[in-house]
């Protein structure tokens, strides 16, 4: 017992271990956590007050003298005793003042946090009409067949019968020129800087602007002859052009002028495409050939005997279309799956962003346009019916597709987006209590000239100066309101600091009553134990003395 009393006297605590008072220990520890949290919260509040004072000081530096001086200049410029030259001199000072306001707003920081440019603008873009769904029909001005179309340098180039070349900047209004021959042109392709148009009897032309065209002549040999060829479809793979022909040959060129040829063994090749690793060309009777270099071709089994007209790479797979509405798909160009759509001929297909779009025709009415996101599930465009559509192209910049028809018409479908702006003001959370959810949220200010509406203040004329006075009055009102807001924040934080300090003081007293020892009582207890101990020792000493005294008497 004496050791327990000594322990409590030496530590000054009533509870030194859980055995002293288990419930009291648990309550005391929770109070201690609260006390330490309150002490940190008070430091947080003091830091927050410093931040608020910094922001309010920056606002004060903007309000006076810069804004006040700027308004003074506007009042001066509104007076007709000044000439325009005089007002131009005032404008020079006004520009410097505006720059100074922006500098203060941009450079007012606390611990790296910008305090006076706290607004961000977020743009939300929503697609309200998707490309390939709704279509418009335009007359090109030509009544002859248009076989192919391509987007090129902000314009569209289309080619057709009798050497016709059409161009348009918007897909609506078209101009027609002729390359001077009667050849039927079947398609036009581009590498981004050069156009290559080609067609019947081996005709091939190049252009760098879509206006001036140069005829290109192949070298003939005993195997093939240019006038006997039909050049049907083509593509640019990033390094070279590849063109498929009507006699099963494939042509390649890196400049559009010098061409090499290879053969696939097909009687007729139509579409060709490339996925970065593999070339695939499709043709008559379901013929499919693949190549790794565009030169050596290997026959593949498509699973159909219907002629295939066009192919594209979309959503990690090749998708080819053709006669009888046939659609075949493959991820590697080797293994193909087949399905059919309700069309006599699917003439062309293009990957257009999130969708793939195929166009074609039925001999008697029927739908002409089909869309899919995965190449497996297709939707029919109901509004377009009875059109014989021959080719389609996608313009990724404008997010629109254009198609051309047998009757010289142009169909356009564009994606329409709606953009809205959202202004977000930066806010800060101050942890002003010892527990969760005990915080104060404040909204920072944006007092740059653009946000105050005075970035274009003009003092060069009397009328503009009067308008400037109105704008500057609003700006002064805004800055004053922001200063008042920060003043209210500071007062709120000072009240929180007082409350936290008072709370801490009372909590410390409460915790002390639970955990600390009453020293006076403990000293009294210790003294009592000392007296009892000493008395016991004296009594024991006397008891031990009695036998000795008896022996002396007997002796």
From TrEMBL:
Coiled coil: none
DNA-binding keyword on record: no
Positions of the DUF6242 domain: 273-382
UniProt GO MF annotations: structural molecule activity
Descriptive protein name: Flagellin
The family this protein is said to belong to: Belongs to the bacterial flagellin family.
Span of domain Flagellin N-terminal: 4-119
Recorded GO CC terms: bacterial-type flagellum; extracellular region
PANTHER family reported in the protein's UniProt record: FLAGELLIN
Main location as per UniProt: secreted
InterPro entries: DUF6242_C, Flagellin, Flagellin_C, Flagellin_C_sub2, Flagellin_N
Organism: Cytobacillus firmus DS1
Described function: Flagellin is the subunit protein which polymerizes to form the filaments of bacterial flagella.
Keywords: Bacterial flagellum, Cell projection, Cilium, Flagellum, Secreted
Compartments, record wording: Secreted; Bacterial flagellum
Domain Flagellin C-terminal: 470-554
């Amino acid at each position: 017992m004496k050791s327990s009393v000594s322990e409590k006297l030496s530590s000054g605590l009533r509870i030194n271990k859980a055995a002293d008072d288990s419930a009291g220990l648990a309550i005391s520890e929770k109070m201690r956590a609260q006390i330490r949290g309150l002490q940190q919260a008070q430091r947080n509040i003091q830091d927050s007050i410093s931040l608020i004072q910094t922001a309010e000081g920056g606002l004060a530096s903007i309000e006076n003298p810069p804004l006040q001086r700027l308004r003074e200049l506007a009042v001066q410029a509104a007076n007709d005793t000044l000439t325009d030259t005089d007002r131009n001199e005032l404008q020079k000072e006004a520009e410097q003042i505006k720059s100074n306001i922006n500098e203060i707003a941009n450079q007012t920081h606390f611990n790296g946090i910008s305090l006076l440019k706290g607004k961000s603008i977020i743009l939300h873009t929503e697609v309200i009409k998707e490309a390939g769904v709704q279509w418009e029909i335009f007359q090109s001005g030509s009544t002859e067949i248009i076989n192919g179309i391509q987007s090129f340098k902000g314009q569209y180039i289309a080619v057709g019968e009798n050497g016709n070349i059409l161009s348009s900047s918007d897909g609506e209004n078209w101009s027609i020129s002729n390359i001077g021959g009667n050849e039927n042109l079947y398609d036009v392709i581009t590498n981004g800087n050069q156009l290559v148009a080609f067609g019947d009897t081996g005709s091939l032309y190049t252009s760098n602007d879509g206006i001036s065209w140069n005829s290109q002549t192949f070298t003939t040999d005993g195997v093939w002859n240019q006038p006997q060829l039909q050049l049907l479809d083509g593509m640019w793979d990033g390094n070279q052009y590849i063109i498929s022909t009507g006699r099963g040959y494939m042509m390649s060129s890196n400049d559009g002028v010098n061409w090499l040829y290879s053969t696939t063994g097909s009687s007729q090749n139509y579409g060709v495409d490339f996925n970065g690793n593999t070339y695939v060309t499709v043709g008559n009777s379901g013929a499919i050939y693949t190549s790794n270099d565009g030169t050596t071709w290997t026959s593949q089994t498509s699973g159909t005997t219907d002629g295939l007209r066009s192919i594209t790479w979309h959503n990690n797979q090749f998708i080819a279309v053709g006669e009888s509405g046939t659609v075949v798909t493959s991820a590697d160009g080797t293994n193909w799956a087949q399905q059919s759509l309700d069309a006599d001929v699917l003439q062309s297909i293009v990957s257009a962003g999130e969708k793939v779009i195929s166009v074609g025709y039925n001999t008697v009415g029927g739908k002409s346009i089909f869309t899919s996101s995965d190449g497996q599930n297709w939707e029919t465009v109901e509004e377009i019916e009875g059109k014989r559509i021959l080719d389609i192209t996608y313009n990724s910049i404008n997010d629109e597709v254009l198609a051309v028809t047998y009757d010289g018409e142009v169909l356009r479908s564009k994606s329409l987006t709606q953009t809205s702006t959202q202004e977000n003001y930066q806010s800060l959370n101050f942890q002003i209590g010892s527990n969760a959810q005990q915080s104060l949220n404040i909204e920072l200010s944006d007092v740059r000239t653009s946000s105050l509406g005075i970035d274009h203040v003009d003092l060069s004329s009397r009328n503009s100066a009067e308008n400037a006075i109105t704008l500057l009055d609003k700006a002064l009102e805004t800055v004053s309101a922001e200063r008042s807001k920060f003043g209210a924040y500071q007062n709120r934080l000072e009240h929180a600091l007082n409350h936290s300090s008072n709370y801490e003081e009372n909590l410390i007293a409460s915790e002390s009553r639970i955990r600390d020892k009453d020293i006076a009582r403990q000293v009294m207890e210790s003294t009592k134990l000392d007296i009892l101990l000493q008395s016991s020792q004296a009594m024991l000493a006397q008891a031990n003395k009695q036998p000795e005294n008896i022996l002396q008497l007997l002796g």
